[in-house]
Specification:
Elements lengths: L1 H22 L3 H14 L5 H20 L4 H24 L19 H20 L9 H20 L1 H7 L8
Helix pairs in contact: 1-3, 1-5, 1-6, 2-3, 3-4, 4-5
C-alpha cells in the first residue's frame, strides 16, 4: 500500500506544482489563465476564482508533501479536480471553444474529450490516494521501492501534462492546424 500512496502523492503533487508554476510564471500567463476561468466558469467572480484555484493547488502540494496530511490533500484535490471536470464538461456540452490554460501553458487546443479523459485519470489517482492513505503503512521497501514509486508517479504526471500533444496524435489529419 505504501508504494501506491507514494506514487499517487508524487503524481498529483507534481501535476499541481507544475500547474501553479505555469500559471504564476508571469503576469501574462496568469492573465491567460484568468481569461480561461472567465470562459469556463462565467458565473463566478473571475479574479477571485483564479486566485482561489492557484492557492488551492499550492495548498494541495503542501498537504501531499507533508507526511501527516496526505489524506486531506487528496480530499481537497478530488474536490478541485471534480469542479474542473464539471466546468470542462459544461463547456464541451455547450460547444464553447475555450483554450485550455489548465497548466498555465499557452495551449491553443480547446477543452474537449481529451481533457475530460485527463481529468478522469487525475481523479483516479487522487481517489486512489484518498482510499489507500488511511491504510498505508510506512514501509515502502527501502530506497528502491520509494524510487520506483516516485518514478511511476512522475511518469503518470508526465503523461497527464502532455494531454494536448497525445490527443493530437490521434486526430485525423484533416483536423490538424
Amino acid at each position: 500500500m505504501a508504494h501506491v500512496l507514494i506514487s499517487c502523492r508524487a503524481f498529483i503533487a507534481l501535476v499541481f506544482v507544475l500547474s501553479v508554476a505555469g500559471k504564476l510564471r508571469g503576469r501574462h500567463a496568469f492573465l491567460e489563465f484568468t481569461d480561461s476561468v472567465k470562459a469556463l466558469a462565467p458565473r463566478l467572480p473571475v479574479r477571485s476564482t483564479a486566485v482561489a484555484v492557484v492557492a488551492t493547488e499550492a495548498v494541495i502540494v503542501v498537504l501531499l508533501a507533508l507526511p501527516v496530511t496526505p489524506l486531506v490533500g487528496f480530499v481537497l484535490a478530488t474536490g478541485l479536480l471534480g469542479a474542473f471536470t464539471v466546468a470542462i464538461g459544461a463547456s464541451v456540452r455547450q460547444g464553447r471553444q475555450v483554450a485550455c490554460r489548465c497548466f498555465g501553458t499557452a495551449s491553443s487546443a480547446p477543452v474537449g474529450l481529451a481533457h475530460l479523459v485527463r481529468n478522469a485519470f487525475l481523479l483516479a489517482g487522487s481517489l486512489t490516494g484518498m482510499l489507500v492513505a488511511p491504510a498505508a503503512g510506512a514501509d515502502a521497501g527501502g530506497a528502491p521501492g520509494v524510487t520506483t514509486s516516485l518514478v511511476f508517479g512522475a511518469a503518470a504526471a508526465g503523461v497527464t501534462l502532455l494531454t494536448d500533444d497525445i490527443s493530437r496524435l490521434f486526430r485525423p489529419l484533416s483536423q490538424e492546424g
